[in-house]
Design goal:
With 340 residues, the chain is of the alpha/beta class. It is 26% helix and 26% strand. Helix 3 packs parallel to helix 4. It is elongated, with a radius of gyration of 22 Å.
C-alpha cells in the first residue's frame, strides 16, 4: 500500500518537467490514483496551456473510474478563470472522490478558495502532504506573492584567490562544462540583470545558448543611456529592458524604463510591477554588492575555479548566509548559499 507521500513525490517529479516553461504560473504536477494504482498523470507544461489537473484527467483511459479515485496535486487547484477554466470546479464536475494537496496556493486569486469549493461540494480534501518540498518547488512563485518582489539569485565565478575578472577584461574563469550549467540555470529564471560596465567589458548576449531552454528577459542598468546599440544585448534574440533615468518607451524587443533613482529597491519595485517573478543577477561586483547591502537576495551561486588571477576585481562580500550545498563540477567547485 503506497503512502500519500509516495504519490506526492511523483507529483513533484512531474511538476519539475515544466521548469522554465510556465512562469509566471507555478510548477504543478498531478496524478490520479484508483485502488492504489496510478491511472493518470500530468503536469503544467507551458504557460497558458492546460493545468496539471486537466492533463492528468485527460490521461485517464477509463473515465468511469474518476468518481472512485483520488487526485494528488502538488499545489491547491485554482479557483478562478484565467487563461484556462478553474480546476477546482472541474474536479467537482467529474465527482472526484478525494483530493490530496501538497500546499496552499497563496496568490490572492486562490489562497484557500479552491479548497473551499471542493469541500462545499462534499469532496474529501487533505492538505499539507510534503508541504515543505512543494513550497520549495515553487520558491520563485511564493517569494513573489509573499514578499511582493522577485526571487533574486546572485551568481558569479571567482578565481582561487578571490577575483571575478582580470583587470576589468573578459576572461572565462570557470570551465566550459560549468558555463553550460550556468545556461541551464538562466533558463529557469524570467530575468537576468547586469550593470553597464559588465556590458561594456564583456559584450555578453545573456541568453541560453549551451542549453535548450527559454531565454530570460535581459535587464540592463544604464542610468545615462551610454551603451552603444551595436552591443549584443540589443539584438533580437531576447527581450531587453534598459533601466535608466532619461527615457521611457519601447521599440521592437527593447523597452526603456525610466526610474527616478537607480537603486536596488526601486529596481525591484519596477520588476514586480512587470510581473517578473525571478531574476538572476550576474554582475558586476558593484551591482551585486548593492543588492547584498540592501539585503535583497535569496540565494547565491559561487563558482570557484582553480585558476589564479594576479590582478582584477575582488569578489562581492556576502552576509546573513547559510551554505546549502557544495559540489565539485568537473574542475570547478560550486557553492550555493541561502539568505537567512
Amino acid at each position: 500500500m503506497h503512502s500519500d507521500e509516495f504519490f506526492m513525490e511523483r507529483c513533484i517529479q512531474l511538476a519539475k518537467l515544466g521548469v522554465g516553461k510556465v512562469a509566471p504560473n507555478p510548477l504543478v504536477g498531478a496524478i490520479i490514483v484508483h485502488n492504489n494504482k496510478i491511472i493518470g498523470e500530468g503536469y503544467h507544461e507551458n504557460y497558458g496551456n492546460n493545468h496539471a489537473e486537466v492533463n492528468a484527467i485527460n490521461n485517464v483511459k477509463n473515465a468511469s473510474l474518476l468518481k472512485d479515485s483520488t487526485i494528488y496535486v502538488s499545489l491547491e487547484p485554482c479557483s478562478h478563470l484565467g487563461k484556462t477554466p478553474p480546476c477546482a470546479n472541474l474536479l467537482c464536475n467529474i465527482n472526484i472522490k478525494k483530493v490530496v494537496i501538497g500546499c496552499i496556493d497563496i496568490s490572492s486569486k486562490v489562497n484557500g478558495k479552491g479548497i473551499e469549493i471542493l469541500r462545499n461540494k462534499g469532496i474529501e480534501v487533505k492538505v499539507g502532504v510534503l508541504e515543505k518540498k512543494c513550497r520549495e518547488l515553487n520558491k520563485h512563485f511564493f517569494k513573489f506573492h509573499e514578499k511582493k518582489r522577485p526571487f533574486i539569485l546572485l551568481k558569479w565565478a571567482e578565481s582561487s584567490n578571490g577575483f571575478i575578472d582580470k583587470d576589468g577584461k573578459r576572461f572565462n574563469i570557470s570551465g566550459i562544462e560549468t558555463q553550460t550549467l550556468v545556461h541551464k540555470i538562466r533558463s529557469e529564471y524570467q530575468g537576468i540583470l547586469v550593470g553597464r560596465k559588465t556590458v561594456e567589458n564583456d559584450n555578453p548576449k545573456l541568453t541560453v545558448r549551451a542549453y535548450e531552454g527559454q531565454n530570460p528577459t535581459r535587464i540592463i542598468i544604464d542610468p545615462m543611456l551610454r551603451l552603444d546599440d551595436s552591443l549584443s544585448i540589443f539584438n533580437k534574440e531576447s527581450n531587453t529592458i534598459i533601466l535608466n533615468t532619461k527615457k521611457e518607451g519601447s521599440e521592437n524587443n527593447i523597452e526603456w524604463i525610466k526610474l527616478s533613482s537607480i537603486n536596488p529597491k526601486e529596481i525591484i519595485k519596477k520588476l514586480f510591477k512587470k510581473n517578473i517573478q525571478s531574476v538572476i543577477i550576474e554582475g558586476g561586483q558593484k551591482t551585486i554588492q548593492s543588492f547584498i547591502d540592501n539585503n535583497l537576495w535569496d540565494e547565491t551561486i559561487i563558482i570557484k575555479s582553480e585558476k589564479i588571477i594576479k590582478k582584477g576585481t575582488k569578489t562581492p562580500t556576502l552576509n546573513n548566509l547559510q551554505i546549502t550545498k557544495e559540489i565539485t563540477f568537473f574542475n570547478d567547485k560550486i557553492l550555493i548559499y541561502r539568505n537567512i
